[in-house]
Design goal:
Blueprint lengths: L2 H13 L4 E6 L2 E8 L2 E7 L6 E5 L8 E3 L8 E4 L4 E4 L15 E2 L4 E7 L2 E6 L4 E6 L5 E3 L4 E7 L1
Length: about 150
């Protein structure tokens, strides 16, 4: 099962009245349970230990929302998951993006590590990076603002 499919299942459980979903495909098994407005995911696969992911309830807004302050023309790019934020693929490599850089859809902005999986976070918009809101190697929460972007 792909990460995208797991995210969709988490979103389904978060947004609906369903409190539990269990799916089994061959040797892979995943169970998603909603407990007190938190969603827990437990999956198993051959030669892999049991994994547990805790995700916050789905937000009612889209991941890209305008910032309300004096920066009303800017767009905030938020974290799609809980994990550790990295500006580059390795400590000795340059950051994927910096202040003033132009971005387009599909451009890798950062990496978020969750459960020893390194997830590249790609831009969904075109624009120019105005501010990076998170320090390298720091923990991030679901829906936490990561970047401010001036749309183009």
């Amino acid at each position: 099962m792909e990460l995208k499919e797991i995210k969709e299942l988490i979103k389904l459980v978060s947004e609906t009245g369903v409190s539990e979903v269990e799916i089994e495909r061959g040797d892979f098994k995943i169970a998603i349970k909603k407990i007190e407005e938190k969603v827990f995911v437990q999956s198993t696969a051959p030669a892999m230990p049991t994994q547990m992911i805790m995700a916050a309830p789905a937000a009612t807004s889209t991941p890209l929302t305008p910032v309300a302050e004096h920066t009303s023309n800017l767009i905030t790019i938020k974290s799609p998951m809980i994990g550790t934020f990295y500006k580059s693929s390795t400590p000795d490599k340059p950051a994927f993006i910096g202040i003033g850089d132009e971005i387009k859809p599909g451009k890798v902005l950062c990496i978020i590590e969750a459960m020893k999986l390194f997830n590249e976070i790609e831009s969904e918009i075109s624009g120019r990076i105005v501010k990076v809101l998170v320090e390298n190697a720091s923990p991030v929460e679901y829906d936490q603002p990561l970047f401010l972007v001036e749309p183009m």
